[in-house]
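Structure, all two chains, one model.
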Amino acid sequence: MINRVRELRAGHAWSQADLADRLDVSRQTVNAIETGKYDPSLPLAFRIAKLFRTNIESIFEPGKE
Amino acid sequence: MARVPEAHYQRRSMAAIVVYVAIVMLVRSPAREATSLPAQLMFALLPVAPMVYVIWLLARRIWASDELEQRTHLIGLGVATGIVAVVSLIGGFLAAGKVLTLEGAASFLLFIFPLLLLIYSATRAWVARRYGIDALCDDGVPMYQKFLIGALLLAGVATWLYSKGADDFDLGVLAGLSAALAIGAVLSGVRRWRSRRNARPEP
Protein backbone atom coordinates (compact mmCIF):
# COMPACT_ATOMS: atom_id res chain seq x y z
CA MET A 1 0.00 0.00 0.00
CA ILE A 2 1.19 3.50 -0.81
CA ASN A 3 0.39 6.31 1.61
CA ARG A 4 0.79 10.06 2.03
CA VAL A 5 1.20 10.07 5.80
CA ARG A 6 4.70 11.56 5.72
CA GLU A 7 3.61 14.27 3.32
CA LEU A 8 0.57 15.17 5.42
CA ARG A 9 2.62 15.13 8.62
CA ALA A 10 5.20 17.43 7.05
CA GLY A 11 2.36 19.72 5.98
CA HIS A 12 1.42 20.17 9.64
CA ALA A 13 5.08 20.54 10.65
CA TRP A 14 4.71 17.64 13.08
CA SER A 15 7.49 15.30 14.04
CA GLN A 16 6.89 11.54 14.01
CA ALA A 17 6.65 11.71 17.81
CA ASP A 18 3.97 14.44 17.58
CA LEU A 19 1.90 12.34 15.20
CA ALA A 20 2.43 9.22 17.33
CA ASP A 21 1.12 11.08 20.40
CA ARG A 22 -1.95 12.25 18.50
CA LEU A 23 -2.69 8.74 17.24
CA ASP A 24 -1.80 7.03 20.53
CA VAL A 25 0.74 4.75 18.89
CA SER A 26 4.53 4.50 19.14
CA ARG A 27 6.84 6.69 17.07
CA GLN A 28 8.23 3.54 15.51
CA THR A 29 4.77 2.51 14.33
CA VAL A 30 4.39 5.90 12.61
CA ASN A 31 7.78 5.36 10.99
CA ALA A 32 6.80 1.84 9.84
CA ILE A 33 3.57 3.20 8.28
CA GLU A 34 5.36 6.09 6.56
CA THR A 35 8.01 3.85 5.08
CA GLY A 36 5.36 1.41 3.84
CA LYS A 37 6.66 -1.44 5.97
CA TYR A 38 3.40 -1.75 7.86
CA ASP A 39 -0.17 -1.24 6.68
CA PRO A 40 -2.34 0.06 9.54
CA SER A 41 -5.59 -1.58 10.58
CA LEU A 42 -8.84 -0.04 9.41
CA PRO A 43 -9.52 1.66 12.80
CA LEU A 44 -6.05 3.23 12.80
CA ALA A 45 -6.41 4.28 9.16
CA PHE A 46 -9.69 5.99 10.10
CA ARG A 47 -7.96 7.75 13.01
CA ILE A 48 -5.25 8.98 10.65
CA ALA A 49 -7.82 10.20 8.15
CA LYS A 50 -9.84 11.93 10.87
CA LEU A 51 -6.73 13.62 12.25
CA PHE A 52 -5.85 15.03 8.83
CA ARG A 53 -9.51 15.83 8.13
CA THR A 54 -9.66 13.87 4.93
CA ASN A 55 -10.85 10.46 3.77
CA ILE A 56 -8.93 7.20 3.79
CA GLU A 57 -8.78 6.90 0.01
CA SER A 58 -6.90 10.16 -0.29
CA ILE A 59 -4.21 8.92 2.12
CA PHE A 60 -3.91 5.24 1.29
CA GLU A 61 -4.02 3.66 -2.12
CA PRO A 62 -3.26 0.11 -3.21
CA GLY A 63 0.28 -0.44 -4.39
CA LYS A 64 1.50 -2.89 -7.00
CA GLU A 65 0.72 -6.50 -5.97
CA MET B 1 -4.77 1.52 29.39
CA ALA B 2 -1.94 4.09 29.16
CA ARG B 3 1.12 3.12 27.14
CA VAL B 4 3.98 1.82 29.33
CA PRO B 5 7.28 3.57 28.59
CA GLU B 6 9.88 1.03 27.48
CA ALA B 7 12.46 2.36 29.96
CA HIS B 8 9.95 1.92 32.82
CA TYR B 9 9.34 -1.70 31.82
CA GLN B 10 13.05 -2.44 31.34
CA ARG B 11 14.04 -0.99 34.72
CA ARG B 12 11.38 -2.89 36.65
CA SER B 13 11.86 -6.21 34.89
CA MET B 14 15.65 -6.01 35.28
CA ALA B 15 15.25 -5.26 39.01
CA ALA B 16 12.85 -8.22 39.36
CA ILE B 17 15.29 -10.54 37.59
CA VAL B 18 18.14 -9.44 39.89
CA VAL B 19 15.87 -10.10 42.90
CA TYR B 20 14.97 -13.48 41.40
CA VAL B 21 18.62 -14.51 40.96
CA ALA B 22 19.45 -13.38 44.50
CA ILE B 23 16.48 -15.29 45.98
CA VAL B 24 17.27 -18.45 44.02
CA MET B 25 20.84 -18.41 45.32
CA LEU B 26 19.87 -17.53 48.89
CA VAL B 27 17.05 -20.05 49.41
CA ARG B 28 18.68 -23.12 47.88
CA SER B 29 20.21 -24.28 51.16
CA PRO B 30 17.36 -23.24 53.50
CA ALA B 31 14.85 -24.99 51.22
CA ARG B 32 16.79 -28.26 51.52
CA GLU B 33 17.46 -27.92 55.22
CA ALA B 34 13.97 -26.82 56.36
CA THR B 35 12.21 -29.54 58.33
CA SER B 36 8.58 -28.38 58.34
CA LEU B 37 6.46 -28.58 55.19
CA PRO B 38 5.27 -24.92 55.32
CA ALA B 39 8.88 -23.70 55.59
CA GLN B 40 9.95 -25.97 52.74
CA LEU B 41 7.09 -24.69 50.61
CA MET B 42 7.85 -21.06 51.44
CA PHE B 43 11.55 -21.32 50.62
CA ALA B 44 10.96 -23.42 47.51
CA LEU B 45 8.29 -21.14 46.04
CA LEU B 46 9.76 -17.78 47.04
CA PRO B 47 11.62 -17.33 43.69
CA VAL B 48 8.31 -17.61 41.83
CA ALA B 49 7.12 -14.24 43.21
CA PRO B 50 9.49 -11.98 41.20
CA MET B 51 8.83 -14.02 38.05
CA VAL B 52 5.06 -13.61 38.49
CA TYR B 53 5.75 -9.88 38.73
CA VAL B 54 7.75 -10.02 35.46
CA ILE B 55 4.86 -11.84 33.75
CA TRP B 56 2.43 -9.23 35.06
CA LEU B 57 4.69 -6.42 33.74
CA LEU B 58 4.90 -8.14 30.36
CA ALA B 59 1.13 -8.63 30.18
CA ARG B 60 0.54 -4.99 31.09
CA ARG B 61 3.07 -3.85 28.50
CA ILE B 62 1.49 -5.94 25.72
CA TRP B 63 -2.02 -4.86 26.71
CA ALA B 64 -1.00 -1.19 26.45
CA SER B 65 0.92 -1.61 23.17
CA ASP B 66 -0.29 -0.36 19.83
CA GLU B 67 -1.34 -2.71 17.05
CA LEU B 68 2.09 -3.10 15.43
CA GLU B 69 3.79 -3.68 18.77
CA GLN B 70 1.12 -6.23 19.70
CA ARG B 71 1.76 -8.03 16.43
CA THR B 72 5.49 -8.30 17.17
CA HIS B 73 4.76 -9.45 20.75
CA LEU B 74 2.27 -12.04 19.51
CA ILE B 75 4.66 -13.51 16.93
CA GLY B 76 7.47 -13.56 19.51
CA LEU B 77 5.29 -15.31 22.09
CA GLY B 78 3.90 -17.74 19.52
CA VAL B 79 7.33 -18.84 18.31
CA ALA B 80 8.66 -19.05 21.89
CA THR B 81 5.66 -21.10 23.04
CA GLY B 82 6.06 -23.51 20.13
CA ILE B 83 9.79 -24.07 20.69
CA VAL B 84 9.44 -24.36 24.47
CA ALA B 85 6.56 -26.83 24.04
CA VAL B 86 8.79 -29.06 21.91
CA VAL B 87 11.72 -28.73 24.34
CA SER B 88 9.39 -29.55 27.28
CA LEU B 89 8.10 -32.64 25.47
CA ILE B 90 11.65 -33.77 24.81
CA GLY B 91 12.56 -33.22 28.48
CA GLY B 92 9.41 -35.01 29.67
CA PHE B 93 9.94 -38.05 27.46
CA LEU B 94 13.63 -38.23 28.36
CA ALA B 95 12.65 -38.21 32.05
CA ALA B 96 9.90 -40.80 31.44
CA GLY B 97 12.40 -43.00 29.62
CA LYS B 98 14.81 -42.54 32.55
CA VAL B 99 17.43 -40.98 30.26
CA LEU B 100 17.20 -37.89 32.48
CA THR B 101 17.16 -38.33 36.24
CA LEU B 102 14.29 -36.81 38.20
CA GLU B 103 16.66 -34.17 39.60
CA GLY B 104 17.87 -33.42 36.06
CA ALA B 105 14.27 -33.05 34.87
CA ALA B 106 13.53 -30.66 37.75
CA SER B 107 16.54 -28.50 36.82
CA PHE B 108 15.36 -28.67 33.22
CA LEU B 109 11.99 -27.21 34.26
CA LEU B 110 13.73 -24.23 35.87
CA PHE B 111 15.12 -23.23 32.49
CA ILE B 112 11.76 -23.34 30.69
CA PHE B 113 10.71 -19.79 31.60
CA PRO B 114 14.11 -18.13 30.93
CA LEU B 115 14.23 -20.02 27.62
CA LEU B 116 10.75 -18.78 26.75
CA LEU B 117 11.73 -15.18 27.51
CA LEU B 118 14.96 -15.49 25.54
CA ILE B 119 13.28 -16.92 22.42
CA TYR B 120 10.41 -14.42 22.70
CA SER B 121 12.84 -11.46 22.92
CA ALA B 122 15.01 -12.68 20.05
CA THR B 123 12.02 -13.46 17.79
CA ARG B 124 10.33 -10.16 18.59
CA ALA B 125 13.53 -8.27 17.82
CA TRP B 126 13.86 -10.11 14.50
CA VAL B 127 10.21 -9.48 13.52
CA ALA B 128 10.41 -5.84 14.61
CA ARG B 129 13.49 -5.29 12.43
CA ARG B 130 11.43 -6.35 9.42
CA TYR B 131 9.16 -3.37 10.21
CA GLY B 132 12.14 -1.08 10.62
CA ILE B 133 11.90 -1.12 14.41
CA ASP B 134 14.78 -1.75 16.78
CA ALA B 135 12.78 -3.54 19.50
CA LEU B 136 15.81 -4.05 21.70
CA CYS B 137 16.75 -0.41 21.81
CA ASP B 138 13.61 1.72 21.66
CA ASP B 139 13.98 3.44 25.02
CA GLY B 140 17.15 5.39 24.29
CA VAL B 141 19.37 2.98 26.23
CA PRO B 142 21.65 1.07 23.82
CA MET B 143 21.32 -2.71 24.05
CA TYR B 144 25.03 -3.24 24.66
CA GLN B 145 24.72 -1.11 27.80
CA LYS B 146 21.81 -3.24 29.04
CA PHE B 147 23.80 -6.42 28.44
CA LEU B 148 26.79 -4.88 30.17
CA ILE B 149 24.74 -3.81 33.21
CA GLY B 150 23.25 -7.33 33.44
CA ALA B 151 26.72 -8.91 33.18
CA LEU B 152 28.12 -6.63 35.89
CA LEU B 153 25.11 -7.23 38.19
CA LEU B 154 25.41 -11.00 37.89
CA ALA B 155 29.17 -10.82 38.35
CA GLY B 156 28.56 -8.71 41.47
CA VAL B 157 26.07 -11.26 42.86
CA ALA B 158 28.54 -14.09 42.08
CA THR B 159 31.36 -12.28 43.87
CA TRP B 160 29.14 -11.63 46.87
CA LEU B 161 28.02 -15.27 47.00
CA TYR B 162 31.64 -16.42 46.63
CA SER B 163 32.52 -14.38 49.71
CA LYS B 164 29.62 -16.12 51.53
CA GLY B 165 30.93 -19.56 50.52
CA ALA B 166 28.29 -20.51 47.92
CA ASP B 167 28.58 -23.89 46.20
CA ASP B 168 30.28 -24.42 42.84
CA PHE B 169 27.02 -25.01 40.96
CA ASP B 170 25.58 -21.61 41.94
CA LEU B 171 28.81 -19.81 41.13
CA GLY B 172 29.10 -21.67 37.82
CA VAL B 173 25.56 -20.71 36.76
CA LEU B 174 26.12 -17.05 37.64
CA ALA B 175 29.55 -16.88 36.02
CA GLY B 176 28.17 -18.54 32.88
CA LEU B 177 25.22 -16.15 32.66
CA SER B 178 27.46 -13.17 33.29
CA ALA B 179 29.91 -14.29 30.59
CA ALA B 180 27.02 -14.87 28.14
CA LEU B 181 25.73 -11.34 28.77
CA ALA B 182 29.23 -9.91 28.37
CA ILE B 183 29.51 -11.66 24.98
CA GLY B 184 26.05 -10.27 24.13
CA ALA B 185 27.31 -6.78 25.04
CA VAL B 186 30.28 -7.12 22.70
CA LEU B 187 28.16 -8.47 19.82
CA SER B 188 25.52 -5.80 20.34
CA GLY B 189 28.18 -3.10 20.54
CA VAL B 190 29.74 -4.24 17.26
CA ARG B 191 26.30 -4.35 15.61
CA ARG B 192 25.56 -0.83 16.83
CA TRP B 193 28.91 0.43 15.63
CA ARG B 194 28.37 -1.12 12.19
CA SER B 195 24.80 0.21 11.84
CA ARG B 196 25.93 3.70 12.90
CA ARG B 197 28.72 3.58 10.37
CA ASN B 198 26.21 2.72 7.62
CA ALA B 199 23.43 4.98 8.94
CA ARG B 200 21.75 7.49 6.70
CA PRO B 201 19.89 10.53 8.06
CA GLU B 202 16.07 10.44 7.88
CA PRO B 203 14.74 12.69 5.06
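Helices of chain A lie at 5-11, 16-23, 27-34, 42-51.
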